[in-house]
């Protein structure tokens, strides 16, 4: 069993400002015990809520933050 962070979801998620964000596909990033990604590349956009959760390494690897 491994730990992962959900970075995209098809189900619409409500943001604090009242808007909704929804992606075309589901995606996750595998993480280790220090909450750092196992891989070295992240494909596709990620949600900006990851910044609030302190996953800065995933944010820096992503090509786009929405």
Please specify the SSE layout and strand pairing.
Blueprint: E1 3-8, E2 13-14, E3 20-21, E4 27-31, H1 49-52, H2 56-61
Antiparallel strand pairs: 1-4, 2-3
Using brief descriptors, characterize the structure shown.
single chain; alpha+beta; two-stranded antiparallel sheet
Task: Give an account of the 3D structure.
The protein has two helices and four strands. Helix content is 15%, strand content 23%. The longest helix has 6 residues, at 56-61. The N and C termini lie far apart (29 Å). The strands form two sheets. Strands 1-4 form a two-stranded antiparallel ribbon. It has a two-stranded antiparallel sheet with strand order 2-3. It is α+β, with helices and mostly antiparallel strands. The chain has helices spanning 49-52, 56-61; strands spanning 3-8, 13-14, 20-21, 27-31.
Low-confidence stretches: none
Largest sheet: 2 strands, antiparallel
Share of helical residues: 10-25%
Count of helical segments? 2
The SSE order reads EEEEHH
Over all CA atoms, what is the radius of gyration?
12 Å
Quote the distance from N terminus to C terminus: 29 Å
Taken from the alpha-carbon principal axes, the silhouette is globular
**Averaged pLDDT, please?**
95
Strands in their spatial order, largest beta sheet: 1-4
Q: Proportion of β residues?
A: 15-25%
Helix/strand-derived class? alpha+beta
Count of extended strands:
4
């Amino acid at each position: 069993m491994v730990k992962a962070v959900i970075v995209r979801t098809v189900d619409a998620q409500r943001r604090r400002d009242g808007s909704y964000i929804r992606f075309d596909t589901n995606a996750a990033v595998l993480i280790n015990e220090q909450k750092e990604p196992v891989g070295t590349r992240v494909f596709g956009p990620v949600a900006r809520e990851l910044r609030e959760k302190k996953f800065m390494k995933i944010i820096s690897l992503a090509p786009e933050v929405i």
